[in-house]
Amino acid sequence: MHSFQPLRGRASKRAMAVAAALCLASLTPAAALAANGPGATVGAIRWDAWVGDTSTNGVIAGSHIGLEVEGALGPNQFHDRIPFYGVETSTSSVQVRQLTQAQMDADIAYAKRAGLNYWAFCYYADGSGMDIARNLYQASAQREGLNFTLVLGPGSIPTPTLVTEMAKPHFQKVLNGRPLLYLFGFSADSYAASYVAEVRAAATTAGLPNPYIVVMNPTSSTAASIASSVEADAVSAYADSPINGAAYSQVISQNGANWNNHKATGHKVVPWVTAGWDNRPRALYPQSFVSPTPPTNAWAQQATAAEVATNLQNALTWNQNFAATADANTVIMYAWNEFDEGGWLTPTLSKGTDRVDALSNALKYASSSNWDAGQTARGAFDGDPSTNWQAASGFANQWVEIDFGKDSTFSQATISEYGARTTGYRIEYLNGSTWKTAYTGTGIGASSTVTFPAVTGRKARLYFTSGIDTPIIYEASLNATPNVSANLALNRSYAASSQWDATQGAAKAFDNDPNTNWQGSGANIAGTWLEVDFGVRKPFNTATMSEFGDRTGGYRIEYWAGPTVGWTTAYTGTTIGASKTVTFPTVNASKARIYWTSGTYTPIIYEASFGLN
């Protein structure tokens, strides 16, 4: 059995030591940041060795990798990497240990604030000692809105366990429901080919869509060879590894060149962002899990925030320019927490949330221009009236924009500006690929709330047509709510654990008629269920229900994850009442049901529907 050790060294057969820092930044003066047009998903790699004196015997016999990585960060020159949950114990020692749910919940909040769509966990088995962060993430009540996927090494996870992970509703999907997986450290051999075939077969048996499998290797020819051998869907890399204190501008060039090199192989590509690299801690403090020890010249100069923002934007633009090649429309970043190798997004003790905020600028907000790095588009939407966005020069044709992340419906905007400068503006929304006008106004002033017929779009912006000086916006807010699709349960097949009589069958709960109903029968409410069969797998993340008499005391929304996994919980609730709409991470399934766990009398449901927002 192989073990997955993702950072053993550049020459290792199982894994290559490639790493970088992920730091994204504010816009430079007078520069416009292009919107993330087609809405690429963006993930960041996690390598969770920050476990202190916890035994990592499950990775290397007798090891305490957490103490080793703390030792590597001990020299004072590396203390600028200490994350918000770390402690500088002296000028030559640190403690960096993420072991509590509160720490993980805060980490999740920062990732969502940044605009990340998912974390890619380097997978280590439960009980290995390096599974703590992944399990804290899974246990978090805050994780909704931040998906996960896995970076797998040879033999790192049994196939049944992997299928269980992929079936989770918050596992990252691409291309209408395909689970996204990264392979790292594999070779073009029969073992790898049989493993990938086994994973695909097991997913099919479980009723899951065919996984989208990405081979990671920075050398394009090697990546292509492995991908062809295992019939992977795309190629990518963990990161690129500059040397000799290279300027970060060279890293940007290296990334872009390698995306093109991978594209030239004829394979699909997931571009990667190498936002920095400084492996000197591991060179100066040799570690048991890194072989061979990195050379002392394995480093690049630390990037400025603006430089890394440029690199990220390059990747997003590359996806747009080569949409056929980048068919999964995702970007993988190195890394969330590779502190000892020089790659991190996590807020630090020395610089706070600078990288999180800069990433947010790059992914959520855009503008025609900015006056300076402190007055970016983010300042207009951050809920803080003491911050602002200001355009660089001129008034007409300036704009400031927010990306909701999904199609959303809104009919009201509240705006505040400095100095009553605006004399003409439009509120616009992105409908498909076209900007359309929702509202046309004149002045704004200290506070202006306007309403208009509801419109739906992924993005909204203020577009200025006339005024004096340059526009300055303190705050702009919209009453945007996710756009819920039509009822997926209409005109389908239905079933129930029981029914009161022939006139109150399961179909009556899904007929869009509030005057009809389904009612269960029997003395036991717990175990009663009401089901819809969509016929084919469909994504959904909302359920709306109405019942008679407030009879429900506990229930679950469940989805069919295939014969291997069976029914899986998407949402757990208590009461339903006259009308209840609940949301949960998107699931993809052919059947859904309401499963009662407690209540008074038999449940009576007037209407139930499922949708996707």
Mean pLDDT: 88
**Low-pLDDT residue intervals, each spanning 5 or more residues:** 1-35
> Describe the biggest sheet?
10 strands, mixed
Oligomer kind = single chain
Query: How helix-rich are the residues, as a percent range?
Result: 10-25%
> Beta-strand percentage?
25-35%
**Helical region count?**
10
Radius of gyration: 26 Å
Termini separation? 43 Å
- The coarse overall form would be globular
Structural category: alpha/beta
Q: In total, how many beta strands?
A: 29
Overview of this protein structure:
By secondary structure, the protein is of the alpha/beta class. Helix content is 19%, strand content 32%. Strands 1, 4, 5, 6, 7, 8, 9, 10, 11 and 12 form a ten-stranded mixed sheet that branches. Strands 15, 16, 17, 18, 19, 20, 21 and 22 form an eight-stranded antiparallel sheet that branches. Strands 23, 24, 25, 26, 27, 28 and 29 form a seven-stranded antiparallel sheet that branches. Strand 18 and strand 19 (434-441) form a beta hairpin. The chain starts with 40 loop residues before the first strand and ends with a strand.
Write the topology of this structure.
Elements: E1 41-46, H1 65-72, E2 86-90, E3 93-96, H2 101-114, E4 118-122, H3 132-139, E5 147-152, H4 159-166, E6 173-174, E7 178-184, H5 190-205, E8 212-216, H6 220-230, E9 234-236, H7 248-264, E10 268-269, E11 272-274, H8 280-284, H9 305-321, E12 330-334, E13 337-338, E14 343-344, H10 354-364, E15 365-367, E16 389-390, E17 399-417, E18 422-431, E19 434-441, E20 448-467, E21 472-478, E22 481-482, E23 493-496, E24 518-519, E25 529-547, E26 552-560, E27 567-573, E28 580-599, E29 604-611
Helix pairs in contact: 2-3, 2-10, 4-5, 6-7, 7-9, 9-10
